[in-house]
Amino acid sequence: MKKEFRVKKNKDFQEAFKNGNSFANRQFVVYSLRKPDQEHFRIGLSVSKKIGNAVTRNQIKRYVRQAFHELENELNQKFDYIIIARKPVAEMGFHEIKSSLIHVLKLSRVLSKHKAGYNEKQ
Question: Which CATH class is domain 3-107?
């Protein structure tokens, strides 16, 4: 994921927590904050040490980034997204993580209609 697609600064995370809308399911909490002056979305990831060791946490982050990369044409581009992973994510594979993210993004109404052929397990 390119640098311009990432939220890195603590100030940006805190702004999303304070002013953004939050939606959650068992696996993820997603904060979305509208940024009208932005050309494309940005994502920030938070995976706690409680979830697993560094290898597990980095794998989860790679899976989430890849899921967002595959969904980028269907996401509302004028938002910052902060994704917080919860404990059940540690035992999930890529397709389960993507399915869970699609579910929570649909709840937050930032995901346009997803491809009809995709089989969701939520």
Answer: alpha beta
